[in-house]
Specification:
The complex is a heterodimer of chains A (339) and B (258). Chain A is of the alpha/beta class and 339 residues long. Chain A has 2 domains: 226 residues, 3-Layer(aba) Sandwich (Rossmann fold), CATH 3.40.50; 70 residues, 2-Layer Sandwich (Alpha-Beta Plaits). Chain A contains 13 helices and 14 strands. In chain A, a hairpin with a 2-residue loop joins strand 12 and strand 13. In chain A, 41% of the residues are buried. The N terminus of chain A is likely disordered. By secondary structure, chain B is mainly alpha-helical. Chain B has one domain. In chain B, 77% of the residues lie in helices and 0% in strands. Chain B contains 11 helices and no strands. In chain B, helix 1 crosses helix 6, helix 6 packs across helix 7 and helix 7 packs antiparallel against helix 8. Chain B is elongated, with a radius of gyration of 19 Å. The chains are: A alpha/beta (339), B mainly alpha (258). Chains A and B meet through helix 3, strand 6 and helix 4 of A and helix 1 and helix 5 of B.
Chain lengths: 339, 258
């Protein structure tokens, strides 16, 4: 076996740099189930130590991708490495390097939280005191110490999900896969899980691949993301990059009941840099390069035209808009179709 | 393969703990073989008058038969735990971890073995209370339990393998039900071999269920034919190992479907 020496030493240094080999690399993955093509040539690379989001509606191919990368399923064609290890050639080595939190619960409901964690530790080859210490540490980290002796059946959805993530981390993997980590959680539990994931991303030397069909989740958590639709990659970049492709902010002006909509529209059309002006009822929308500087100008123009304004809001472009732009349909409609 | 033994230990422990945490299930498992013994014992009481029965007491004859039927009806459901794990996401988590596949199969088999030994002992005790006598003594009972455990291993593996292929509880229930009764009746579990039609005698000599019954009855008799017992135990061992190996291969079929 020949290893390029420069690369080998770089991989051993303690801090990650942009030149590190990717923590995950998928190359032209294709997966067919009979006539159905779940993945249609998907490629992406994940930098070590980052949170990578795989975003798409249900049925886009996210879970299939995770199954291939976690060695559960084999692609029809294509290749992938995880933690530098070929998933097709050395699946068992990949399994030691990764933590997996599946879309289902993945916990034994008849066992206690501690028993679940201990089993996960033991199956990963940890023994005796070391295993027990790690389990205690994780129970503490995920605030589950008080419920450690209760069987999982009695846990709330949020607690079960935390236990799931803890089980995925028990052997200190270098890559963690989270398949729809907040699906089915109530808003408070979701917020807690987000905080948990953000903390993991900061504290542990860990690469996280996260699939989600919640746009705001990808926006909130991911450093980099790809948008997948019908088994293909439609866009990639950081959430900010993707949104900035849309160029500019939306400015939404609600007029007072007695104001003239025509006059207001004329005033806004006279503004430098105002594009895509639309009127619906007493609301005028426009897109500008910089919302913060455009608002005072817009208000001044409206005041000059003697139009009374009820409210002004500036909205940064959302990933919804990105998805719409790249796929030609809204995220909500794609979800409805695929269901 | 160094992970096989420790993983088997951890996973067996998990399954036994899960069973013990469901008291209703434990009670049913313990009562069911008693009901069979009492019910069949009464229903077929006079069957020993048919020529072909070597013994004059149907309870003597029936007790090993009920132990073997219990094996089929208990181990046939082994795969349900696998399907439960699939539905819950536990299976996918396991298979994406370095857990030994052989250990997953062995743990299920050992869990069945423990259950079968407990059930078998209860049937023997109830049989004795009903007036059965086993001239073969403790050794005979141990041989019966060993044969039953081997049959349970084969049948549990078959059930697990089917579970990995059909992946739904409904299909597995259908498969198990379809198999258990014919396999029991195509053996001498309830009816003396000599009293059955010729074709059933022929079929039953190839039926591992019958091997188990014959080995058990022979070992429990006053003057066992040990060669016949060992032959059948050997056959059961081969079938159990073969089934276990095939069922472990079925993990690949399951993963191919993902």
């Amino acid at each position: 076996m020949t290893v390029p020496t420069g690369r080998a030493t770089a991989a051993r240094t303690s801090t990650h740099t942009k030149d590190d080999p990717p923590a995950i690399e998928a190359v032209d993955l294709v997966k067919k189930y009979g006539d159905v093509t779940a993945l249609d040539g998907l490629s992406f690379a994940v930098r070590p130590g980052t949170v990578f989001g795989l975003l798409g509606p249900n049925g886009a191919g996210k879970s299939t991708t995770i199954k291939i990368l976690t060695t559960l399923s084999r692609p029809t064609s294509g290749a992938a490495t995880v933690a530098g290890i070929d998933v097709l050639a050395r699946p068992n080595d990949v399994r030691r390097a990764i933590g997996v939190v599946t879309q289902g619960a993945g916990t034994d409901r008849q066992a206690t939280g501690r028993e679940n964690l201990l089993l996960a530790a033991h199956l990963q080859g940890m023994r005796g005191r070391a295993a027990k210490q790690r389990v205690d540490e994780l129970l503490e980290l995920f605030s589950l110490t008080d419920s450690a002796k209760r069987i999982v059946k009695q846990y709330s959805g949020g607690m079960q999900r935390k236990l799931d993530v803890a089980m995925g981390l028990v052997h200190r993997p270098s890559v963690l896969f989270l398949d729809e980590p907040t699906t089915g959680l109530d808003p408070q539990a979701r917020a807690e899980m987000w905080a948990e994931i953000a903390r993991l991303a900061r504290q542990e030397r860990l690469t996280i691949l996260l699939t989600t069909h919640y746009l705001e989740e990808a926006d909130h958590l991911a450093d980099q993301l790809v948008i997948v639709d019908r088994g293909r990659l439609v866009a990639q970049g950081s959430p900010e990059e993707l949104k900035s492709e849309l160029r500019g902010d939306a400015v939404v002006i609600d007029l007072s009941p007695d104001a003239s909509v025509e006059l207001a529209r004329a005033a806004i059309e006279g503004l430098a840099g105002a594009r895509e002006i639309t009127v619906s009822g007493r609301t005028i929308r426009t897109r500008v390069d910089h919302g913060a500087s455009a608002v005072p100008a817009a208000l001044a123009a409206l005041e000059k035209a003697a139009v009374a304004v009820a409210a002004v809001t500036v909205a940064r472009p959302a990933l919804d808009d990105v998805y719409l732009r790249h796929t030609g349909r809204t995220f909500a409609s794609a979800e409805a179709v695929n269901r | 393969m160094t992970t096989l033994a420790p993983h088997t230990g951890y996973l067996t422990n998990r399954m036994i703990m899960a069973t013990l945490r469901q008291p209703a299930f434990v009670v049913i498992m313990l009562i069911q073989p008693m009901i069979w013994l009492l019910l069949f014992g009464q229903l077929f009481k006079r069957i020993v008058e048919i020529p072909g029965f070597a013994t004059g007491s149907y309870i003597d004859f029936l007790t090993p038969g009920v132990v073997v039927m219990t094996v089929l009806f208990t181990s046939g459901w082994a795969g349900m735990a696998f399907i439960d794990d699939m539905d819950r996401g536990v299976m996918d988590r396991m298979l994406s971890s370095p857990v030994s596949r052989g250990a997953m199969m062995l743990a299920s088999v050992l869990n069945q073995a423990v259950t079968i030994v407990v059930q078998g002992v209860i049937v023997v005790v109830v049989g004795l209370l009903l007036g059965a006598s086993f001239p073969g003594g403790i050794l005979g009972v141990l041989v019966m339990l060993l044969a039953s455990v081997l049959l349970a291993a084969a049948f549990a593996s078959l059930s697990n393998g089917m579970a990995l292929i059909v992946r739904t509880q409904e299909s597995l229930i259908g498969f198990s039900t379809m198999l258990t009764l014919p396999l029991s009746f195509l053996s001498s579990a309830m009816m003396a071999r000599e009293a059955a039609p010729g074709w059933i005698q022929t079929v039953s000599s190839y039926n591992p269920v019958d091997w188990t019954v014959v080995a058990a009855r022979e070992a429990l008799s006053a003057d066992p034919d040990w060669a016949a017992v060992l032959l059948r135990l050997g056959g059961l061992f081969v079938v159990a190992v073969a089934m276990g190996w095939i069922a472990t291969r079925a993990f690949r079929a399951y993963q191919r479907s993902l």
